[in-house]
Design a protein that fits this description.
Helix content is 22%, strand content 35%. It has 442 residues and is of the alpha+beta class. The protein folds into four domains: 104 residues; 88 residues, no CATH class; 77 residues, no CATH class; 97 residues, no CATH class. Strands 17, 18, 19, 20, 21, 22, 23 and 24 form an eight-stranded antiparallel sheet that branches. Strands 6, 7, 8, 9, 10 and 11 form a six-stranded antiparallel sheet that branches. The N and C termini lie far apart (64 Å).
């Protein structure tokens, strides 16, 4: 039988609720006692009709203590059954039916863990089964940190971070939830964890300074924006490349315009989207069209610069596209390693073992040292993701955006140098420790 998840609250006084629960449990053959400190009914359930089974060779309990919640649910007070949450008993006719419901709830939990385990296996993340909490615990290592991921039907969360050469930090609520389905490969998960680790450690330190919460609050589901497709032109890119002074045309939908004055005459720059990052532009004045051409948005120098060049003028207007906000903090990029939009960067991988069916490999940092977990891919998948250069294999990414906070937005390239997957963000400090410009790799 499935366990009804909802608990209905009542306006009846606790004494009356305890009387109702005592009568029902007595009809099932269960005796309970009142705990004077908590004013809760407590008892024990012996499993005779159904024998519980657990994964990983953990011996199941044959007798389990419980407390009564409300007048119609019981909740086990010791592991591993305490992980099941409240179990409805009031609608059951006999004690074997209650044992069956507990056994079904346990098997449902184990089945959910098995499905979660498949996600860990797909990413090649080593896991272990915790028989007390009925959870899976995975381990992910990056260049600088080791992460512990704890997973159950409520979600997968980062539960502990161990910096290199430092004591581990146990994370508490609010947890950082990780959706394993979002990541195509272990390297994507590692890069994500490397990106958020600073915020996780700062949040843990802030919680320690604030002290324990007076009242526990449940985790809050977060709303996450879906990244745009790899070939999409975002509003941010438009503002960066065309400037914030450009406006949508009032007469022609989809047209972007900006007006200028030069030697007493007014000129209008107009651009319309063709496809991808390609636009068609023109400059018109009192005597008609003076210039028209197509341009690549990612390599566009700015509207004012183009207009000034066509008219042979010195632009008094500063291109907002070229006026980037002041960077936040010191730049992590050495003077010779500043990424540029459209530039391809590479990360080397070390082959540990390969045959006709699969490849076992590890990612390497810029010093050539392996980091993170060893991975195994089918040979066809490996050759679709990685590019061979001489005797070396490399992962290629292309820079889509360099942000003022020293992070980058990038896309992975396949063996045909075509973008694959959605754009991703990476901290600049991570980029320069794991990738180098392609021009330096040969």
């Amino acid at each position: 039988m499935a366990n009804p998840p909802a608990i209905i609250t009542s306006s009846l006084p606790p004494e009356r609720l305890n009387q109702i629960a005592t009568g029902k449990l007595a009809s099932l053959g269960l005796r309970v006692r009142l705990d004077g400190a908590s004013q809760q009914l407590r008892g024990e359930l012996a499993f005779r009709a159904f024998k519980l089974t657990l994964a990983g060779g953990t011996p199941p309990p044959q007798v389990a203590n419980f407390k009564v919640v409300g007048h119609d649910h019981l909740e086990f007070t010791a592991p591993p059954l305490s992980a099941l949450g409240p179990i409805m008993f009031y609608d059951l006719p006999a004690l074997p039916a209650l044992e069956e419901r507990v056994a079904a709830a346990l098997q449902q939990r184990l089945a959910s863990l098995a499905a979660i385990g498949d996600g860990f296996k797909r990413l090649r993340v080593p896991t272990r089964f915790d028989g007390d909490t009925l959870q899976l615990v995975g381990q992910v290592k990056t260049v600088t940190h080791a992460f512990e991921l704890t997973a159950d039907p409520a979600g997968t969360r980062v539960s502990r971070v161990a910096p290199a050469n430092a004591s581990p930090v146990v994370l508490s609520e609010p947890f950082h939830l990780v959706d394993l389905a979002r990541f195509e490969a272990i390297i994507d998960l590692e890069l994500h964890l490397a990106e958020v680790v600073t915020g996780l450690l700062e949040g843990a330190a802030a919680l320690r300074r604030a002290g324990p919460k007076p009242v526990a609050t449940p985790p809050v589901a977060t709303l996450e924006a879906v990244p745009p497709p790899g070939n999409a032109v975002t509003l941010g890119v438009l503002a960066q490349k065309l400037g914030g002074a450009a406006a949508l045309g009032a007469s022609r939908p989809g047209e972007i315009t900006q007006d200028f004055t030069f030697k007493g005459a007014t000129y209008r720059f107009a651009a319309t989207h063709v496809s991808g990052t390609t636009f068609k532009a023109s400059l018109s004045g009192p005597q008609g069209e003076k210039w028209s051409d197509r341009f690549d948005l990612l390599r566009f120098p700015g509207i004012a610069s183009v207009v000034a060049t066509v008219l042979g003028a010195q632009p008094a207007v500063r291109d907002e596209a070229s006026a980037a906000p002041a960077p936040v903090g010191p730049s992590p990029f050495p003077s010779h390693l500043k990424p540029q939009v459209g530039e391809v960067w590479v990360m080397n991988v070390l082959i540990e073992r390969e045959d006709a069916a699969e490849v076992r490999y590890a990612c390497a940092n810029v010093d050539g040292k392996p980091f993170g977990a060893t991975r195994i891919l089918r040979r066809s998948e490996f050759e679709d993701v990685f590019v061979q250069g001489g005797t070396a294999w490399r992962l290629l990414i292309v820079m889509d955006e360099i942000r003022p906070d020293h992070s980058v937005v990038y896309r992975q390239l396949d063996r045909h140098r075509q973008p694959r997957g959605a754009p991703k963000r990476m901290e600049g400090a991570i980029l320069v420790t794991t990738f180098i410009p392609e021009a330096m790799a040969y």
